[in-house]
Amino acid sequence: MQLSENQPAGIEISLWQYSMNERDRNRWVQSLSPDERDRAATYRFDRDRASFIAGRYLLRRLLSGYVATAPSKVVLVADEHGKLSLEGRDRPQFSLSNADGLVAVAVASGCERIGIDCERADTEIEEVTLDAYCSVDERRWLDELPAHERARAAVELWTLKESHLKAIGVGLRENPRNVTFSWEDSLPVAAHDGKRDRRWFHRLIESGSQHVVALAVCSRSGLPGIHTRLFQDDSMPSE
Predict the structure, then answer these.
(1) For 25, phi and psi rounded to 5 degrees?
(2) Which of 164, 150, 155, 178 is nearest to 106 (CA)?
(3) DSSP 72
(4) For 17-159, where are the E strands, in sequence order?
C-alpha cells in the first residue's frame, strides 16, 4: 500500500479503522452539523450510529483542508438522490463509504465523477443475491473460479458495481446488472448497458484490513494518480 501524509494532486483515498470507544465518538460528533447529529441519534444500533458518525467526521476533516474552514463549518449539499457535494463552484469530487469498522473516503481533483465502496471481505452473499446482481457472463465467471476464491470474488464484484453506481449518483436505485464487469490485464473493466466508456477507470484498493475497497473514476484525461493513506485520528475537539 502506498501511504502519504500530504494532500496530493489527483485522487486521495483515506482509510480509517476507527475505534468503537464512546469517548472518541462523543468527540467526533462535535464536528458534525446539527442535521447530522440528529440523524445519528435516529440509528437504533450502536454499531450503525458509530459508523455514520465516524464517516461524516472523517469526510469533514478531509474536506476542511480544501475549503480552509473548520470541519463543522464545511457546507455539504445533498441532491434529490442524497448524493453529497461541497457548496461552491471550485470543489473537488468526493465519495464516502462505511463498512463495519472501516471508513473509506476518496477525494479527487480534475475528475468528472468518483465513487468508492467498501465491504467486509467475509460477507456472505446468498445465491439469490448473486442472481440479482450478476449478468450471465459474470455468474459464469464466478462459477468457474475455485471454491476457495469464489466468495471473495463475489464481494469484489459487488463492491466494484457499488462504487460505479455511487459515482454516477444513483446507487442501488439502478439495477446492478446494468453495469457488467470483465477483466483486461487483470484490471476490472466496466460496461454500462452493454457499452464501454473509456473515460471510466475501476480499481480494487488494498485496504490493509479485512475489507474489500473499490474505486470508480470518470476522467477524460486518463486515470489520475491514486494515493492511499491510513488515517490516524490525532485531532483535538473542534470548536
Answers:
(1) -65, -40
(2) 164
(3) G
(4) 76-78, 84-86, 93-99, 102-108, 113-120
Instruction: List, for residues 49-95, the tens digit of each pLDDT value.
Output: 999 999 999 999 999 988 889 999 999 988 877 788 887 766 789 99
- The DSSP call for residue 31 is G
CA distance 209 to 53: 20
Name 115's bridge partners: 216
Whether the CB-CB separation of 94 and 76 falls below 8 Å is answered with no
- Taking CA atoms, 97 is separated from 36, 54, 149, 173, 234, in Å, by 16, 11, 24, 17, 21
Closest CA to 179 of 156, 199, 195: 195
Domains defined along the chain, listed by start: 11-230 (3.90.470.20)
Which of these, 162, 167, 117, lies nearest to 13 by C-alpha position?
117
Kindly report the three-state secondary structure assignment for every residue of 155-185.
Answer: HHHHHHHHHHHHHCCCHHHCCHHHEEEEEEC
